Amino acid sequence: MSERTPVTFLSQDYGRRIAAVKTSDQELKDLLQVYTNLVKSTVGKERPNDE
């Protein structure tokens, strides 16, 4: 059984929601932007670049 990181889990969850719900292009872009920012902030915390 492979490990499921929070990012992987969220990715799969968002994928299901996007597939299950019809959204306008703008709503989809907004959702992807929010998700992209979430991933960047999550990955950024794991990297000691700000020190």
UniProtKB/TrEMBL annotation:
Top-level taxon: Eukaryota
Name used for this protein in its record: Uncharacterized protein
Source organism: Ramazzottius varieornatus (Water bear)
Gene coding for it: RvY_08651-1
